[in-house]
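Morning. Coffee machine broken again, so started the prediction first thing and wrote up yesterday's gels while waiting. Chain of 120 residues, entered below exactly as on the submission form.
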Amino acid sequence: MEQPKDKPVTKWYRYSPKNDDIEEVMYVYPHNDYIILGGTRTENQVNLEKITTTIKGIDIRCGEILNSLNSLKVKQIKVGARPKRETTFRVDAENIEGITVIHNYGHGGEGVCFFLGLCI
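Came back before lunch.
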């Protein structure tokens, strides 16, 4: 969503109930010019056919927390599966044919929170 010019959103909001209720998960991550909204938690499923219903649910849940989001323009919609590893995430370097490859994955839905700190 576009970041409002008059009253920018500056605080991160995140709600993830302990009861694994995928209908309650939500997050709002503001950036300079845009705001990321999200909120799903579905184990072992990468079927993206129900994306329209999912997007509407995210909009409703985030709008209930921050009413100002309800009047903002959607800039872009992106969908991605965020796999979570059974044991722990992977962050390490590997040399493949003279090229350093950094592995940084398996964070599940928390990747957007952790990525910057883990790649430094």
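The mean pLDDT is 78. Going to sketch it on the whiteboard this afternoon.
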